[in-house]
Description:
This protein is mainly beta. The chain has a single domain, classed as 6 Propeller (Neuraminidase), CATH 2.120.10. The protein is 2% helix and 47% strand.
Amino acid sequence: MSARRPAIRLLCDSADALGEAPLWHPCDGHLYWLDLTGIRLHRLEADGTLTTRFPARPGPLGAIVAGPAAGELVLTAPDGLWLYDWAADSLTPLCHPEAGRTAIGYNDAKVDRAGRLWIGTSDLAEQDPRGALWCWQSGAAPVLAEAGLTVVNGPAFSPDGRTLYLSDSVGRRILAFDVAPGASVLTNRRVFASMAVDEGYPDGLTVDADGFLWVAHWDGWRVTRFSPSGERALVLPLPVPRVTSLAFGGPGLATLFVTTARVDLPAVVLAAAPLSGSLFALEPGVGGLPERPFVPSVQ
């Protein structure tokens, strides 16, 4: 199915400093997302009401993925990974693979088709290639899968689970790797796509049911749909510059939700883009793939 050029609508004027990590939870049918530097966790209720929680972590937050039950989320914070229970408003510590390293932050995380959790980390100063990608399979300790990156964003997975994409954001490129369902080893590292200066920086990623990759552009005022061969198939302008991440959800996973940021934008840019930090939505004519919940084991 080909994506069409849809209308982009404002869904929630949440005024997030750094909106990120949209997630349609497969166990409860709610949309969750984060305001990283505001240390806020949002949930959009069925009636459109916005409910916000403030997880008691020494922010900024990094990412959320679906936990094994309704209202359960695996959340990353500076002190590691936690299981958050929405109903109880409680946190349970899980693991901290970057313990002992200074000036490192947890960033985007996703669960692959085999149920493993991939966790990106970043150099907090966004200067040195100290970021890494960890793979955590329930029942085992997290394994270092890739290193030498400055800011790790994404990741995302092809429908068959055999290709992993991630944004090397500072390098203005998207990398692709081969990954086997039964192994945490990445092979055949390659550049999937590169960004020109006027396209901004590649940030969050998701894959649709046709295997095309959707990319959020930080400082690029757009999202782009790439074919599996890396060609730009569709470019959708947004009314804000700092587009951070995106995820499919809603009935039939037919809606693409898009998070944005307003952090550090000059006053003149905020005047031109007053909806910066809002949540947007669109129906591109192609559906997404359901997120697989992660079943954590306490380390």
